[in-house]
Amino acid sequence: MNKKIKIGIIAIVLIVLIGGSTYLLLNKKEASNVKEPDEQIRIEPTKKDENDKEETGNIDSKNRKSLVVYFSVPETDDPNKEMTTEEENSTIVVDGKVLGNTEYVAMLIGEYTDSPIYRIEPKIPYTTNHTDLVSLAKEEQNKNTRPEIRNKISNFDEFDTIYVGYPIWWSDMPQIMYTFFELYDFTGKTVIPFSTHGGSGLAGTVNTIKGKLKETTVETNAFTMSRNDMESAPKEVKSWLEDLGIIN
Questions:
Q1: What are the Cα distances from residue 5, in Å, to 11, 13, 16, 154?
Q2: Beta strand pairing call for 39-41 and 97-100
Q3: β-strand pairing of 161-167 with 217-218
Q4: Residue 53 pLDDT class (50, 70, 90 cuts)
Q5: Left if phi > 0, otherwise alpha if psi is -120 to 50, otherwise beta: which for 158?
Q6: Helical segments of 116-232, H only
Q7: How far apart are CA 70 and CA 144, in angstroms?
Q8: Distance of CA 79 to CAs 10, 31, 105, 118, 131, Å?
Q9: Residues with Cβ within 8 Å of residue 11, at least 6 apart in sequence
Q10: Per residue in 55-85, pLDDT tens?
């Protein structure tokens, strides 16, 4: 073989190898935008009574393991103080305990569906000062940041159905929810969104989730509740789950 031809072939092979390595490095860098949490936790699926003859409806819940995931930032945890308007808007007091609005809905879903509950906690806790929290939420949204999550579910693959709840901040999910959706593999799972809001409803977040989770079944009949109607949450959540065919 001509020496020039050999050199040319070697040069082409080197270009291909270098190009492939660069592609892998770039993709690795992009994937690392969401940092792996330092702490791993295991969540035990709830064992349903074998005698439970629960009928299923639109969503096949038989023999499926479900998990309730939520993010919530109640702006106070003191039930005895005189709350500001902002603190009242972000919370509800149940049996003498202050709960975040989304937290309360998550607890109800967990109770009605007999599912374990996981709270998304940021590595750096959010401020409970309303003005500062609003500003930070907007800044994170403008910068499209991915706030780090404190811990990761080590056995996430064991769950089939994931109820995912969040408040609406600036007409979108909080940015930490993007971290959550990018942290796990949702392929083949069913995601059922729920939200609480101050007037924005779901704010198009169901379509956002569908856009991110291409290989996932995302329930479009998502639940949303205004912060002004939290007292009726038990009835409304139960009715919604009945409509989905999850409970009778």
A1: 10, 12, 17, 53
A2: unpaired
A3: unpaired
A4: very low
A5: alpha
A6: 130-143, 175-183, 205-212
A7: 20
A8: 74, 42, 18, 23, 21
A9: none
A10: 333 344 445 799 999 999 999 999 999 999 9
